Amino acid sequence: MKLQVKIEAKTSYIHFGNYFSKAIIIQENKNLCPLIIVESEEKVKMYKKIFLFLSQDLREIQNEADLVELIFDNSGISIISQEKLREINEYELFKKRVIEIKKGESYDINDIIGKLTSFGYNFSEYATKGSYKKQGDILSIVNISGTKEYTISFWGEHIEEIIEKERKSFNGEIIAGKKQEKKSIFLGKNEPLKEEKGKNILEILRKKEIFIILDGLEFYEKYDSIITNFEYFASFDIVGATKIKRKDLEIFDIHLQDVEELKKILSQRKSYIFTKNEKLIQNFIDYNNIDNCIITASNSSFLKSFWTKDVNYVCDDIILKTFIKRRIRKSIAKDLDLLLKINSGDFVVHIDHGIGIFNGLVSKELGGITKEYIEILYKNDDKLFVPTTEIERISKYVGVENPKLTGLGSKEWKTSLEKAERDIEHIAQELLLVYASRKMEKGFSFENQSQKMHLFQSHFPYVYTADQQKAIDDVLADMETNKNMDRLLVGDVGFGKTEVAFNALYNAFLNKKQALLISPLVVLAYEHYQKALERFAPFGLKIGVLTRLETPKKVSETLVKIASGELDIIIGTHKVLSEKIQYKNLGLIVIDEEHKFGVEDKEKIKKMRINIDCLSLSATPIPRSLNMALSGIRDISLLREAPHGRKDIQTTVSKFDEGIIERACKKEFERGGQVFFVHNRVENIESMKNILQKIIGDKKIVITHGQLQGEQLENRIMAFKRKEYDVLLSTTVIENGIDFSNVNTIFINECQSFGLSQIHQLRGRVGRSEREGYCYLFYKKENLSDDTVKRLKTIVKYSYLGAGFELAVKDLEIRGGGDILGIRQSGQATEIGINLFLELLEDKIEQLKQDGPYLKQDKVDISIDLNISALIPDTYFNGEIDKINFYREIETIRDEEELNGVMEEFKSINPDFPLETENLFTLLRCKILAKRLKIIAIKRVGIHYEIQFQSHITVEELKKFLQLDKEVIFHIVSIDKIRTLKKDFGNDREFLDYLLKMFDPGEKIKFPKKIKLKH
Fold it and tell me: Helix 259-268 crosses helix 316-323 at what angle (to 10 degrees)?
């Protein structure tokens, strides 16, 4: 629909940004006395909270009377939901129901009483609802709802005074009174008005500044019904850019990698800081000599950070996350689980009790001791309170939507676990057959070239993320062993997988080995080729390309160069898999998106990689080969951290809308950018071009799709890259790897036909530089299926950087589990949750790899049940979700070095450590040290403290432990249990301190990893 702009001069549009940033913009325009229109009553409540925090009155329009008052009293900021607005239709009816009066003007008091009577008002001595009273020259009116009373004093026919009083509707008690110069008194009843022809209320508001704030799919689903009821509503720009009265106002989210970046942005421009802990931030600012910061106390989790070109608005959502970094886990399954945040209402799995619903954190105090617990709801409304120190036993449920809750204490969970373990045993045995054959293979051992590699890395124009650096180190270490590398590199769109691969390619070159980079798509192969030419230019590597685009003559020349060893790197599609190609000295294969190759090509790749190092790249966060990574058959590296400077991509869902296309393209062209338009139907792509051409005028459009001749396809893409065209209209051939930094707006047409991961891949084509990226998803059908609506809502929700993992999980749940285990499908995976299933599989494989009993050295769970207050104050976190996920992180810490690192981060925020937090870290330290000594429990039992060991502990090991007991306070209860009296200690913390001295007296007590039991 072509929107007719009828109130454009006074209408402003806000779509991008968070609640807080939108409220700030409106408050800065408060002198315009704006009206805010939002989607729902829920949003009204949210904005009322924010404006209350900003000490700004916000008038809520709840009924016809409020809206008429707004028309005649143009002051302050007002807000209304689109649902309420739909109820108010005809202005002419309002005019009939209004008495307008002004101080000093002449009125006939009897005419006013007559109008009151015609609307059903009655005379009353007691000021009841819908009544009036005349007493001499004073007329009193109480409105229909009983919430307001007006006292009008006359001097003859002239009004001398108007007093408006606020009342409690249920008892008539006066709350407040205020003198008014003029007043519009609405007499109508609070009931919907009948539809009659007349002037629409929205046109009457043409003199008022209107801000329209509409987000999400919910609005678009109602769009048709709204414009049916409101002809003039179509005159509003439903989804616009961040422009206020045609003045550019850019709003950007703030993304920080570390404390140094926080210092940098606070130093760059004036900053307003909203935080729970003023002292904490003030200390940080003073210590770093940062000026021009204004700190405001805030305990509001709805405040989100953003910046404009002049000002930073910094809130706790980024401050505390900046100090609290992700840590790298040894367990791949646990690492993947930690990528999924747990929110209140999510399904979770407790390994001992089954599937429940996470209901938040609760603090409980007993005998002066305060501890925090995770509350989980189970079947029949049963509740389980799990100490945060045992949070490692909980994982987020992934499998099917709305799984059946487990009954606490029932046998059903035990039965489900037993069935799963039987499946896991079979899968693990099959995987280990592959693992055994891999161990027997011998490969080429690349020499360490650290000095030259460092030089290569120093030419990279950006700073490596921690994950990138670790992945590079792991790849190079793999290549130096005499085992064939088989590593899977998983990273979200634009997270730097290519640079990791280039490090491997260069290392092969230094070791005089040829390297091959294979891509499933011609376009992607050429993108890699162009990037490689640029990246390796200073180092003299010779690079060739083989795809269906090359002429026979060019192919022949390339084959000769490959055979002679003249080419160091060969980049291509399945064409490089031909048996005709003779590689002189192939040492490395890099495979991009292996799962997209056909069955025949996969078999060829499988044969080629024998005795050759192999690195596979995947943006698919849950690859089908994940189980192989868990088993150790394939090593895995995860890139979870966004490159420096990248911003979230602003995502909008809508029916196809030419107005949106026109405005978004204009915004992109004005900043010198280009546009992608994805239309996945070759049969009518020319028609789509004609539609777009009418919208964007003289801007140039080029079409690409898979049915074009190879050379033609390449030429068009290269011409677009050279900026000879403004818009690339294409099918999904641009889905993978195309990297045009100048393209930061993408439209995806008929998005209902795409999966979540595919939309995420396409969306990842933009926003790959420091410019903000915009993605517009257009759907076609009138009635979308439930699954489609869920997908579209999900893609908007997960538009932040690195959201690919969560998106893939949601897609898995929406579409069904599928065969994620590759070798065989297990129905039990969804019965107990895929995350827990993978963890158990990982444990089983480790167990089968070992000779003798499996001791789970690093993964053993230790229970410490002592009366010690241990928690982290809420002021360290932006909300409960951040806190619970941080507890999940720290409970997986495996060594003292990592623990010390976390403690230092906390101390950098606030040197005055609370005692409860110190206790928490002391308990964690005790667990880490106790693991080395095969302890599984430390607890109070009656008048004793008791220590319990793993069942595999030997007499010799127990003797060694007791030698640490310098005070000889423990006595043996059994081979795996010792005790001491509680009365020997002042309190539980004193006992814990004694244990720490025992566990770490300066010498390390080490036990063999494998213990042979006597039979």
Answer: 140
